[in-house]
């Protein structure tokens, strides 16, 4: 049995449409999570500081960051504004 690298296996699996759609969905979520982290770290803000600026509790910020697909565009825009981002670019795809 020939061992295959992760890249080879991934490339093979990307031929399956269901796998590709799931991969693209997870990639999009990760990109959005990274964007939120960059916004917050830009001004060295803690989750508690962002929460205070948004008028919510820190657990709400954790839920926004961890369950990114549940956040509305308005919530993401408020998050950006709380982080000092005036004209946020929110990567949806």
Automatic annotation (TrEMBL):
Database matches in CDD domains: HTH_XRE (cd00093)
Record-linked Pfam families: HTH_3
Superkingdom of this protein's organism: Bacteria
Coiled-coil residue windows: none
SUPFAM superfamilies per UniProt: lambda repressor-like DNA-binding domains
PROSITE patterns registered for this protein in UniProt: HTH_CROC1
Signal peptide residue numbers: none
Domain HTH cro/C1-type: from-to ranges: 36-92
Spans through the membrane: none
Record-given protein name: Helix-turn-helix transcriptional regulator
